[in-house]
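User: Batch of two.

Assistant: Item 1 of 2:
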Amino acid sequence: MNKINEPLQLGGWQLPNRVVFQPMEGCDGTFDGGVGELTFRRYMRFAGAGAAILWFEAVAVRAEGRANPRQLFLSPGTADSFKRLLEAGREQALKETGAVPKIIIQLTHAGRFSKPRGTPAPLVAYRNAHWEQGREDQPYQIVTDDYCAELTYAYADAAKLSAEVGFDGADVKCCHGYLLNEFLSAYDRPGRYGGCFENRARLFLDCMEAARQSLPAHTLLTTRLNACDGFPFPHGYGVSEQNEIDLTECKEVLRILRDRFNCEMVNITLGNPYLIPHINRPARIGPEPGDIGMERIRAVTGELQSDFPELAIAASGLSFPGENCVEYADALLEEDAAKLAGFGRMTFAYPDFFRDFTERGRLDRHKTCLACGKCTQLMRAGTIAGCPVRDTEVYMPYYKKYVKD
C-alpha cells in the first residue's frame, strides 16, 4: 500500500488516507456571503473525490474583512446555505465513495487585502513599505488595539456558528499576509499587539482561544500557518537578519498550539500569494524554477514535522509535479516530512485525481494541473476563480473577459 493511502488516527478521527484538499477560494459566493451556484458545484465535485479532509476555503468573520465581494461570509443570514451544502456534500461522498470526509472551515480576516466592495479597503497591522510598493495610494487604515480585542468576538461567533451548521473542525487562518499573520511581523507596532513575540502573537492566540471556547469539545481546532513570510528582514516574519529562513518563532507558535490548545494537526504553508506567489505555489514560469520552490517547502515542512512528531502536519504546494504529484507526495510522507498531503490547484483542475490514482494507479496527464497560474490570475482580476484550462466551459469565459482581454 502507498503511504498516502494509509489510514491515520487523528484524535477522535480515523482518516482513511492522508489526502487533504486545500482551501482554494472560488470567489463565487453570493454578495451577502452565502454559498453560490458555482460554490455548490465545486464542493459536490470535491465531495466524491475520496480525500480524507476537505479543508474548506477561507470564510470571512467580518464583512469589512472580506477579500472580495463574493468571498464567503458565515453569518446568521447565510448559515442555512452552508448547512445545505455540507449535508448534500456528505450525502454525495457516501454515495460515491462509501465514506464521508472531514470538513474544516477556514476562518479569516483579509486585513490589508480586504476588498469587500471590489476596491481596496486595507485594514493593516502596520505600514509596510516593502509590501506597499506600487500600492502606496491605497487607503490604508491601521487597526486599533480596540479593534483587535473586538475581533476575537467575531472569531468566537463564527466558530460557534460553524459547528452549528455542521463543520467538523475550524481553522483560525494565520498565513499568506492576512491580518492575523501580518501581526506576527509587527515588530515596530506600539502597544499590546506589537514589538516582542508575545505581543505580536497575541491577536492570533486570542482568536484561537476565542474559537476554542466556542467550539464543542469534539470539534477539531487547527490553523493554516505561515512557517515564514519569505520577505527580506524586517518586512516579514520567519526570516533572519541574514535573510535566511528562520523557523524559531514558528516553532514557538507550534509549541503553544500543542501545549495550550491541544492542537493535533497544523497545515503549514509559507509566502504571500499576492506579492510572491511562487513561494507557496511553485510555477512553471516565474522568478525561480518550480523545483526550487518545491524543495523549500519540503525542507521547511520536514524540519517542523521532525521537531513536532506528535503533530499531524499537512504539507502544501503538492500540485506542482502534475501527473507525478501523488508519487511525489507519497515519497514526502514516506520520509516523514509530513503526515498529510495537501493539494490545492489540482483540485480545481482535476478533482477526481486521487480516485483515479487509487483505482488506476496513475493520473490522466490530460487532466492534471499545469501550474500555469491562471486560476490565481482570475482571482487577482476580481472575478470567479477556477481552472479555465481543464474546466473550460465554466471558467474560460471569465478568463477571456477579465484576464486575457
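Item 2 of 2:
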Amino acid sequence: MQERLQKIISGAGLASRRAAEQMLRDGRVTVNGQTAQLGQSADPEEDIIRVDGERLPRKKSRTYVMLNKPKGYVTTMHDEEGRPTVAELVQVPGRRLYPVGRLDMYSEGLLILTDDGEAANRLMHPSHRVEKTYIVDVVGEDLWSAVRQMRREMDIDGVKIRAIDVQLIRSGGGRGQLSVTIGEGRNRQVRKMCDLCGLKVQRLVRISEGALELGDLPTGTWRYLTPEEVRYVTEQA
C-alpha cells in the first residue's frame, strides 16, 4: 500500500515525521536507488527504501486495544501512591501499552491503549478535536437550566470552551442523566462544567471517542480494536 515516505520512516521507528521530512529535504532518502523527494509515496512492502544508504527496517507491528475502565483505577502504568492502575487490567504479552489521554480515577468507560505513539499523539492533539461523548448521572435542583448553561460558552481554568452537544436524557426527583459531547478533552472538563452549573456528578462514563464506540464491552475488560477501528486510529490526519 502506497504511503508518504515520511510516514513510512516514522512508522519504522527511525525518526519522527518532522525529522523524516527534513531527511527527505536533505536528499538522504532513496527509493529503488533514486533520490526521493518530499511528498513522494512508496510501498514499504514492494519498494527498497534506504536512509543514508541503510535499508529501512520493516514497519513494526503495533497493538491497539480498548478498555472499559472501571471506577477506582488511575490512568497510568505505575502509581507512586499504590493505587490500582489500568496496566493491571490490560496485559498483552511482549507489548508495553500506554493509555491515550486520561480518565480520572472516579470516571469510567472507553480508554484506548497502544504502543503506537504517533497515533496516540494525533488522537490527543487539540487541533484534531476528536469528539468524546460521556453519559453523566447528576443531581441538581434545576436540570433544564443547567443544561442550557452547559450549552453556552464556558470558562474552564481560564480557557473558553464550548460543548459540542449537551442533552438531558432523563430527569426526575432532582436527578438526571446527561449526554455530553466535547471536542477539547481538557483535564476533568465535564466534571468542571457540571460543577459550574450547580450539578453534582454521581457517575461519568465515556462511551465514544471519534468513531470508536464502547458498545457492550463489560466493565473492567478489554478487546483488540477491529481492523476498521485501527484504520480510523492510524489514518487521522
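The first helix runs from residue 5 to 11.
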